[in-house]
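S2.1 Query sequence (Pre-mRNA cleavage factor Im 25 kDa subunit)
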Amino acid sequence: MGEEVNVTGFHNGSDDELDIYPLSGYFFGSKDPIPFKDHHFSRIKSNYAARGLRTCVQAVLLVELFKHPHLLLLQVRNSIYKLPGGRLRPGESDTDGLKRKLARKLSVNEDGGGSEWEVGECLGMWWRPDFETLPYPFLPPNVQQPKECTKLFLVKLPVSRKFIVPKNMKLLAVPLCQIHENHKTYGPIISGVPQLLSKFSFNMIES
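Output structure tokens follow.
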């Protein structure tokens, strides 16, 4: 059995405790590449004209490495970092959409409905007031018709899992201390994740 380390020094016995399991317990493989679409404003405009507000759901997945919480990020073209997830289909729920996206990008079986993913609470929402601005962690009161909403969900990992990643992407474990407020490298949403997690007491389960 592993040794449990609580980095805050106490157990509060609440739902805000989060067990994080060692990276060594996870296995990584690859599968056929999937198309990657850049965040082109022209495409966002055409999608908005056809369907209205674009809603994206993204997963916050944590693992333990060197007694420190690490965030799992997808890297595309060696320079673009993304949280696993994507755009919802019309009428699709947040949870169902995120499970579908996780199955497509991180699972062996893409048609299994994503039942193996435990989607937890929504940690935060980001809004894009218009097509060309960076997202805000709030909806400005003067914005009546936002163009995009991105919702971040905590997804709890089991002690062991196989991640099967498209060949044109890399799955990286990045320490939270490196991500914190590092807007230049990771953008405003990813670099804000450590603050969203600040309410949790991390229980590092060492191998």
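Confidence is low (pLDDT under 50) at residues 1-13. The helical segments are 41-51, 94-106, 176-179, 183-191, 193-196.
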